[in-house]
Amino acid sequence: MRIGELFAIERDIKGAPPDERRRVRQQLAAPKLAALRPWLEAQMRGLSSDSALAKACRYPLNRWTPMARYCDNGLLEISNNLVENALRGVALSRRNWMFVVSAKGGDASALFYSLVET
Fold it and tell me: Are 109 and 94 in contact (CB under 8 A)?
């Protein structure tokens, strides 16, 4: 729910100029993000350190500074989904390269996939 609120703010300012996005993030998202950290830390206190939920809470806490940086810059996005989606084709193709029979065929496949992905 808390993360969803941050993404809702982003949906509302999508396409706005960077200075407007920064202003809205500072006004609306930064306080929500600031409240998220102590909440995550409180959740960690009652969990086994090996539990999946503890790992999920620890992930953003260990990356807090880079994660919160988007509030200070209207050009940055809240997530890297666009980049991950762009690279998905490369990751899927890599699995296909395992079945290339020859080095020459592998080179040809790599060239083809590189052209397609770019």
Answer: no
Q: What pTM value is reported for the model?
A: 0.69
Note whether 65 and 23 are within 8 A (CB): no
Question: Are 32 and 6 spatial neighbours (Cβ–Cβ below 8 Å)?
Answer: yes
pLDDT (tens digit per residue) in 91-110: 666 666 666 778 888 788 77
Both tokens of 102, joined, read 């020859």
What is the distance between the alpha carbons of residues 61 and 36, in angstroms, rounded to a whole number? Answer: 10
Burial grade of 14 (CB within 10 A; 0-12, 13-18, 19 or more): exposed
Please tell me the total number of residues recorded for the chain in this structure.
118
